[in-house]
Design a protein that fits this description.
By secondary structure, the protein is mainly α. The chain contains eight helices and no strands. Helix 6 packs across helix 7 and helix 7 packs antiparallel against helix 8.
C-alpha cells in the first residue's frame, strides 16, 4: 500500500481570489503578465549578451558596482550589509564570472516565461534578480517586475497545492 505525502490546502478568501488561483481558465488572465515579464527579460538580456563588456570581461558590471558603491552625491546602495556584500564581490573580482551569469540568466528567464516552461521557477529566479537590482539601487521597472513575478509564483504554487496543473 502506497502512501502519498501531499497536502491540498484550499484557498480561502473572496470568490474572485479563489477563482484567480484555483481555476485553470485563469491562465488566460496570467498570460499577459507572463509575456510582459518575459519580454522585458529578453530585452534586458539582448543588451548584455552581445556586449563583450558583459559576457567576456565583466567590465560593465564592475563599473555599475563601483558607481553604486559611491557615497557622493548620494549612496546608490542604501543597505549596509548589501553594500558590504557588493564590495566583497568587487574586491574578489567576481564581476568576471558574475556578469555573464547575469546576462545568460536573464535570457533563460525570458525564454522560459515567454514559452510558459517552468514558469514558477523562472518567475522565482526573476524575482530574486529583481530584488537584487532594487537592493543595488536601480529603480526602472524592477519593482513592478518583482511584484508580477511574486504573483506568478503564487499562481503556480497555489495551483500545485490544490492539484491544478
Amino acid at each position: 500500500m502506497e502512501r502519498t505525502l501531499t497536502h491540498q490546502a484550499p484557498v480561502r478568501g473572496p470568490a474572485f481570489i479563489k477563482a484567480l488561483y484555483n481555476d485553470t481558465r485563469m491562465g488566460w488572465f496570467w498570460l499577459p503578465f507572463r509575456l510582459f515579464a518575459g519580454y522585458l527579460w529578453l530585452e534586458a538580456a539582448s543588451q548584455k549578451i552581445f556586449d563583450p563588456k558583459w559576457v567576456q570581461t565583466g567590465e560593465a558590471l564592475k563599473g555599475f558596482w563601483q558607481k553604486q558603491l559611491q557615497l557622493e552625491p548620494r549612496a546608490g546602495i542604501e543597505v549596509g550589509w548589501y553594500r558590504d556584500f557588493i564590495q566583497s564581490l568587487l574586491n574578489s573580482g567576481a564581476y568576471t564570472w558574475f556578469a555573464p551569469l547575469i546576462a545568460y540568466s536573464e535570457l533563460v528567464i525570458g525564454i522560459a516565461l515567454v514559452l510558459g516552461a517552468f514558469t514558477g521557477l523562472a518567475a522565482l529566479g526573476g524575482a530574486l534578480m529583481n530584488w537584487n537590482y532594487v537592493m543595488a539601487g536601480t529603480a526602472s521597472l524592477n519593482g513592478l517586475l518583482l511584484a508580477i513575478e511574486v504573483f506568478l509564483v503564487l499562481a503556480w504554487k497555489v495551483a500545485g497545492w490544490v492539484g491544478v496543473d
